[in-house]
Amino acid sequence: MPEPSSPIKTEKPAAQHYKQKQFTPEELLAFIRTSLEDAKAIEPCEIDLKGKSSIADYLVIASGSSQRHVASMADTLVKRIKENGFGLARAEGMAQADWVLIDAGDIIVHLFRPEVRDFYALEKMWSANLENNTDEG
Q1: Which has the least CB within 10 A, 36, 44, 55, 58?
Q2: How far apart (Å, rounded) are the C-alpha atoms in residues 15 and 113?
Q3: Helix crossing, 25-38 with 67-83: angle to 10°?
Q4: d(Cα 133, Cα 32) in Å, to the nearest integer?
Q5: Domains of the chain
Q6: Sign of torsion, CA 133 93 74 68?
Q7: How far apart are alpha carbons 76 and 88 in whole angstroms?
Q8: Is 68 helix (H, G, I), strand (E, B) or coil?
């Protein structure tokens, strides 16, 4: 009777290939900034939320010239984040592409058509919210 082989390993060797590198939020922010610049984003804006909100460390807001431009920027950014080892980013709003929200973990990216961005005025809302939080503390 043959002897039993060595015990079965519980960790799959291939799983090591899926481990992500650890990046700081600032490294991811720089990567997103460069990607949006390459995509010709209009008026990108970064809002530092560290210590002020639990949803993310940074909020990035930018515009595209059309629905097609917004969708293209969002699709490219999501793919580049994954391809460069920053993890998985999820996008919402791609069907209409008037306002696409990308959750990249430590950073939330909002991509708008200009008139939609003006209507929602997230920069003003967050600026007011952050000012109110610092006045209380």
Answers
A1: 55
A2: 40
A3: 140
A4: 27
A5: 23-129 (3.30.460.10)
A6: negative
A7: 13
A8: helix
The total number of residues written for the chain in this structure: 137
47-85 burial string, b = 16+ CB within 10 Å, else e?
bebeeebeebbbbbbbbbeeeebbbbbbbebbebbeeee
Question: Is 0.85 surpassed by the pTM of this model?
Answer: no
Residue type, 4: P
Q: How far apart are CA 100 and CA 112, in angstroms?
A: 7
CA distance 1 to 7: 17
> Does residue 14 sit in helix, strand or coil?
helix
Q: Could you list the pLDDT tens digit for every one of the 137 residues in the chain?
A: 555 554 554 444 444 444 556 899 999 999 999 999 999 999 999 999 998 889 999 999 999 999 999 999 999 999 999 999 999 999 999 999 999 999 999 999 999 999 999 999 999 888 777 677 654 44
88, 40 contact by CB (below 8 A): no
Please, what sign has the CA dihedral across residues 56, 58, 63, 68?
negative
